[in-house]
Amino acid sequence: MRLRTILPMACGLLAPPLSAQFDGFALYNLGGQTTARLINANQQIAYTWNCPTAYSYAMALKPNGNLVRSAVNPGNQINPAAVSGKIQELNPQGQVVWEFVYSSADYVTHHDIALMPNGNVLLIAIVRKTLTELQALGYTGTQAKYPGRIIEVQQNGSGGQIVWQWEMSDRFIQYVDPVKPGYMPIAAHPERMNINVATSGGGMGPNAYDWFHENGIDYDEGLDQIVFTSRFLSEIFVIDHSTTTAEAAGHTGGNGGRGGDFLFRWGKPANYGITGTQTIPAAVHDPHFVQGGTMDGWISFFNNSGNNGNSTIDAINPTRVDYNYPWTAGTVWGPTTYQFRHNCLATASGQSAGELMPNGNVFAAVSDQYMYEVNSSNTVVWQYNAGPQKAFRYTCDHPGIITLLNDPCGITTDVAADEEIEAFSMHPNPAQQQVSLAGIDVTTLRSFAVVDAGGR
Known about the structure:
Blueprint: E1 2-6, E2 25-29, E3 35-40, E4 45-50, E5 55-61, E6 67-72, E7 85-90, E8 96-101, E9 107-115, E10 121-127, H1 131-135, E11 148-156, E12 159-167, E13 172-173, E14 193-194, E15 214-220, E16 225-230, E17 235-240, H2 245-248, E18 264-266, E19 284-289, E20 299-307, E21 310-316, E22 340-343, E23 353-356, E24 362-365, E25 371-374, E26 380-384, E27 391-394, H3 399-405, E28 415-417, E29 425-427, E30 436-438, E31 447-451
Parallel strand pairs: 1-31, 13-14
Antiparallel strand pairs: 1-28, 2-3, 2-27, 3-4, 5-6, 6-7, 7-8, 9-10, 10-11, 11-12, 15-16, 16-17, 17-18, 19-20, 20-21, 21-22, 23-24, 24-25, 25-26, 29-30
């Protein structure tokens, strides 16, 4: 006897068909515009927010249906690529619940955000350093630069407050002047940043101050770690968030015991003085700690020129011992190459997003092209012809989606069996972590699957 029961949720699901989509909705907003949209599996607009200010780059849906988004602050004095200067939380009606402006003549937020489980938001910023300040640290360049800063912002009434901070400039070392700070061999200290490292964003143009162009960020609650990407360094970095702000400015403390130093970096060994293959050839965006599935805990990213100039979504599974990522002196911080690769169906030189989903599907938002999802056989199972700089996937049973759309999964309960079952029941329904069956002779039961209406 076979039995199939369709329920809104399940614990122990069977693998869905290869043609199945994983998610119900894609969330996106085109840069510089004010309308955010949820697109369903049928390529229909299921929900919109008419926002009060122009969108910058990133957004996230909260469990209560509110939208957290980076917005363009109209008074920005510094205007790097994907500048924002403001973070907002909007309710389902598009009204501002709270907002926080981080913009001055000396700093501004830009590019990505990461919504944390506690409701706080991680933001990327650049901060001005004068040429005199930098030269005092052993910098050999001739132009003032703006290194990166990461801040954690907590709602404070209708505004926000910074509760944690990390600075790239606290990582600087140099090996040119023994009387200046941070004098140490570069290749012996990959956990630090060579202040004289060569970047792809050099030059004297109007945005040449944007030093490393940090452009993507994600957070893992279990590890209490942050991953971020740098376009001009062609690298991804992992840092410890379990530190205090004071510890993050130093080199001890936190779960990893290294303060704010890099726990891990990957993509271009030459940046830390080691000869090795450059695995991120040029730009890189949208890092993720993969959640769920066979690659749970891996790190994925959008590698803009990963395959001979064509865009890829790559993933690596770096060796981790507790909270640290071991490194052998004189060698490349491994793995030596990507361990998963999806060759994108279109190519973008900038921004863009990619996500590995627990059922093995890959979601891609190729900037200025289109969004799509492929299954493990690389067959397109969903596509939408809008090319936002970044987009986000949410399951139909995500609490925020349910809040907005009530019953987006189309929940049904049905029983199909090879032979008639006169009395059958299962509880709880909707299913939670376990289910109980009544009216079934389990000794003759060949299979039992609990899935939702979308086949998950």
